[in-house]
UniProtKB/TrEMBL annotation, chains A, B:
Species in which this protein is naturally found: Roseivirga pacifica
Keywords in alphabetical order: Amino-acid biosynthesis, Branched-chain amino acid biosynthesis, Cytoplasm, Leucine biosynthesis, Magnesium, Manganese, Metal-binding, NAD, Oxidoreductase
Gene Ontology terms describing biological process: L-leucine biosynthetic process
Catalysed transformations (reactions): (2R,3S)-3-isopropylmalate + NAD(+) = 4-methyl-2-oxopentanoate + CO2 + NADH
Gene coding for it: leuB
Record-given protein name: 3-isopropylmalate dehydrogenase
EC numbers for this chain: 1.1.1.85
Pathway in which the depicted protein is active: Amino-acid biosynthesis; L-leucine biosynthesis; L-leucine from 3-methyl-2-oxobutanoate: step 3/4
Site note Important for catalysis, residues: 143, 188
Top EC class of this enzyme: oxidoreductase
Subcellular location(s) of the protein: Cytoplasm
Amino acid sequence: GVKKNIGVLPGDGIGPEVTREAVKVLNAIAEKHGHTFEYNYGDVGAIAIDKTGNPLPDETLAVCEASDAFLFGAIGHPKYDNDPSAKVRPEQGLLKLRKSLGLFANVRPVTAYDSLLHMSPLKTERVRGADFVVYRELTGGIYFGEKGRTEDGAYDNCTYSNYEIDRIAHLAFQAAQNRNKKLMLVDKANVLETSRLWRERVTAIAKEYPDVALEAMFVDNAAMQMIQNPKQFDVILTENMFGDIISDEASVIGGSLGLLPSASVGEKSAMFEPIHGSYPQGAGKNIANPLATILSAAMMLDHLGLIDEAIEVRQAVNASLRNGMVTEDLTKENPVGTDRVGDFIANHI
Amino acid sequence: GVKKNIGVLPGDGIGPEVTREAVKVLNAIAEKHGHTFEYNYGDVGAIAIDKTGNPLPDETLAVCEASDAFLFGAIGHPKYDNDPSAKVRPEQGLLKLRKSLGLFANVRPVTAYDSLLHMSPLKTERVRGADFVVYRELTGGIYFGEKGRTEDGAYDNCTYSNYEIDRIAHLAFQAAQNRNKKLMLVDKANVLETSRLWRERVTAIAKEYPDVALEAMFVDNAAMQMIQNPKQFDVILTENMFGDIISDEASVIGGSLGLLPSASVGEKSAMFEPIHGSYPQGAGKNIANPLATILSAAMMLDHLGLIDEAIEVRQAVNASLRNGMVTEDLTKENPVGTDRVGDFIANHI
Ligand SMILES: CC(C)[C@H](C(=O)O)[C@@H](O)C(=O)O
Ligand SMILES: CC(C)[C@H](C(=O)O)[C@@H](O)C(=O)O
């Protein structure tokens, strides 16, 4: 067995409940395979603001830095919803985490599960079989450029360096090599200079991956194609802001946000996080769907090199879907609680 | 009758065919109501580059400036598709037109026609009855900010002034007053300073329109909601880049791009344009759907104060849909040619 140091940042709302189930599943994996997973916890988001005034306290950052990988639940509380210009906000914890740890690649697999297609807003034939992954650049672009006010206005600067583009491009090409060998760059190269740079760099890097077919699509067209024909995509590569929009759009086509995991990988550590938010109305009721977080833990196992273990987790998740051992967001007949979904999956390991 | 000076910029691909039918319908309106419409033509896009080396020749700009309003077909040719960084491109004609004429508000109504819902990628019950309009700011933001290269990277600056925000906000509030009195501001105020300024300004202006309910949504969430529940929207207000993405996404939910018109209104003139592109593969075949351009002409009539005439055009379009007098993109049984759709509608005026 191996020894790994795993950070856990439960965060707000349903975050603590869903991360608890993911830890339960990780414990089952550790026990079966003789691994030692040591967990260290940290506060982030609204709960961290409440306790310390800071959405990302230094101790939490230290937990993440010391970890081989960490789980992140969710952040956000309704009391912050109405004032996006407030000085201290939960999201700042997330943005600072990404930047401080250099988590430059946000990886979001989108899988249309057959058993959930009846819940998709898209017609079944359009979405059945859709299976792709979005590589979103996460620490550059307009999110982190200089921003401020002028006398009669405001500005946000978007910058990208060659280096920032190249490093995520390589990851995306490698992902395509392990999948269906298609890479779609999403940009706005007919208008933006940064997008033209993305095109140039990614086109040049493509020469190193002759087995991958590179195409490019303008972001407005990509937003249409995502609905018209999501099956055309294999790996999507894009910059920070476009990735935010396109990956959120993509996340609803399969029928449930409750199953979508993500990874944010970088220089110093790697973070694993469900796509869904903190869903405060559902907190404390044992109704939150833990599958996205459990599947994020599976991505973490992959990242830690525990490939077989990751497969076992995914198989156990599929068993819970097949057996209808799911929360109320996925079924009207006999839903079970958050904890029982986790128990079922842990017992199936 | 009134006398109006109408510019016509047919552009590329199917542009000339669809604008021809719109002019046919405008002529029928003029004849019936005793109006005098004088048409002046100008080249724009790839055809203008071919003829003059310039995607927007000065003569074309003069045609637009002298017009009370003008029709725009479409621009784009496949020979420009593979090099978005080419120095001369058709899109530049469009961007320069918007900026030179101060066409600051792009207005895109989205209507889900019952008879086309079988063609929508969305499940019928999700989209039936959807009816909203997007107000996209069109001459500011990252499209027109300073852009360039540095030694090892590139940048695009996004700026907005109070004035740029306020003038389109007023138009959007007024549109909401004439509709269902709901305005949704789409921004990314949790990250961008320009978005925070949009929130502040729009929230302040809302006080002048107490009958309109203002809400705000982050752009990533809006991209999801557009698919999950498009019926929730009435008027959407957003900045240039977000508007590009969200309005293109919105344009496919109804089942056909071929019916969606747009207006770009401004200080010196107003432009009316179908949402669809130049569709070069369909050019010269008499198969292009002219309805979006004819409905754009209806928006032009509204703009010129000819409200009853605009209604007549829309009624005639509905008659063509009811009678199956439509092009092959809308029906498999007995489609008719572009020219016959225009004839039918002109005869119904
Ligand atoms: C909360 C917000 C800052 C964040 C983002 O825009 O990156 C979120 O939308 C996401 O995609 O993780
Ligand atoms: C052609 C392009 C510059 C343009 C834009 O992005 O504004 C187009 O996508 C549109 O929406 O009219």
